[in-house]
Design goal:
heterodimer; A: mainly alpha; MetI-like fold; 13 helices; B: 288 residues; 12 helices; 73% helix; 4% strand
Amino acid sequence: MRRASNWLLWGYCVYLVLPLYWLVTMALRNNQDIVAGLEVIPANPTLANFAEIFGNPVWYQGFANSLSYVVLNTLISVLVALPAAYAFSRYRFMGDRHLFFWLLTNRMAPPAVFLLPFFQLYSAIGLFDTPLAVALAHCLFTVPLAVWILEGFMSAVPRSLDEMARLDGHRLGYFFLRIFLPTIRGGVGVAVFFCFMFSWVELLLARTLTGSEAKPIVVVMTRTVSASGMDWGVLAAAGVLTIVPGVAVVWFVRRHLVKGFALGRV
Amino acid sequence: MPERRSTNLAWFGVLPVVLVVAFSAVIPLMTVVNYSLQDIFDLNTRVFVGFDWYRETLRDPRFLEALVRQGLFSMAVLVIQLPLGILVAKGLPKSGWRASFMLVLIALPLLIPWNVVGTIWQIFARPDIGLLGAALAGLGVDFNYTASPVDAWITVLMMDVWHWTSLVALLAYAGLAAIPQAYYQAAALDGAGPWEVFRYVELPRLRSVLIIAILLRLMDSFMIYTEPFVLTGGGPGNATTFLSQYLTSMAVGQFDLGPAAAFSVLYFLLILLMCWVFYTLVMREAHE
């Protein structure tokens, strides 16, 4: 059984890596080369596709736009989620369980349902085509997620810590910022990770809420069809670049990640 | 441990969340409900039509087909990804640099933008430029996901397994890591084989993480849009058009506000129902 599961793991890893490997080889070849024939190992690797992306403002501004709404979204989500998660974890209040369920349903709601009204709502208040519009729209699923994750981490901290701080005469604000927050910094890391991730990977809302000004990288990618057909090389290079931020973030929180999953709160 | 204190002042803590989510969820939802009851010609000409759009949607064969397809797809996703995820989790190393490395590798597909996932599989599976497509053609298999509905389904499922099995695996891994060693020692003393250990020691302890895994995979597969949109565009024909895809083509493509809104409300109610069933299950679990 041990051996069988090892084989399965290796097989699964190969299955994970092969499409990624293929993406990277495509990114290193020019388009004529790609269309001309199959090469398992690129014969004439070139960085021309990456040069095209870094030299073209449409591409690198797309990256900047995406990063700006993702960072905005992560900040808003974690800041509003912290006090809420503390309230859910430490107090009982009117409607608390219903409120928690309501938040959860928003994590599960299909973005397609909100497509039409979002477009009209953000147009009406003049936010259409700004990073803030996308950041707020993504709050639909990142805020419930952040509350859910943070509540899990906070509930794992014994309530006697709060009691002791109270007996020591610390005010709630001081206790929360100077004692409690450092205790759950792993949880904050996990929450940041998941807000960042879900905002970064989303396309439908980001596409609907932006025009030419705030166009995110994922939307630029869906429009790389030139007169001569698809430019597969540039598309693949852009794909490779979109993977980089995620890998960087997961590397930083890898220790806390399993703990976050262990709470079953993702 | 001290009890949770009861105070309605805690509402001040949740108020910011309520405001943000109300802005991005409640207002749009009310707009949708509003639209679903009217026939809208332009912004000033609207006629109240009651439940006509709902009746029409429920009789729309394309809606029903998309719903059936969606159900089949979500079932297939669960049937493949749950066992596979658990098996992968069991094989993962428990500690050391190998564990860190493997976890980052496994988490990788989850961090890739969804349209890039579609692009990756497009590049990988195309018969002309893709490694998989070309390899299958080399073996004499006639594989073309843009022409054959069966091949399109296989490709979309393979893509989803590639994209999301990691989530199940990571959840199961975390659940397994939480089982105390003493349980395994006791099982070994009783002479339990690997299957009995799994069935009577690990599976019961994995219950709550697996419920979460099922909930997340069911809900997320139920709203799948971007990946098949990029890979197959819902085709060939409508073979891979799932609910979100059909709804988006109605709302944005044809701008049919009323029917699209009625569709949205039905879709949302279905999600709400599934959510409620699971929430009740999870809460019962937590109280036991």
